[in-house]
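Lab notebook, bench 4. The sequencing result for the construct came back, and we need a structural model before the next group meeting so we can plan mutations. Quick request posted to the team channel:

Model the 3D structure of this chain.
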Amino acid sequence: MTILPGTQVLRMALPSYCMNDPTLARVVDEQHADDFLQQLDGRTVAQCLPQQPNELAFIGPEGTVLEIAALMARTRTPLVVVRAGKQMVGAVTLDALIDRMLLT
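Done. Here's the predicted structure in token form:
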């Protein structure tokens, strides 16, 4: 259905004022910052999902490195599902993609 990057989970833990104005995040001490993360306890994955569905990041087995990089950038996800027809046959992570790009 979707790929949920860890950054989206972090968005749920952070007060909106810290995201809107990063200088406000500086005034929160570490003890109180830890309290924000504790508020995630009991939350569900469904609560982290965006209201509007995003483009799904999937590609066929014939996909190129450049196609995968473009898909990750466009969909803002560090994971691309590789599927043949309707069946998932693998996945490519951002780390693996960068390793591959640096080796070639």
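The radius of gyration is 17 Å.
Will bring this to the meeting.
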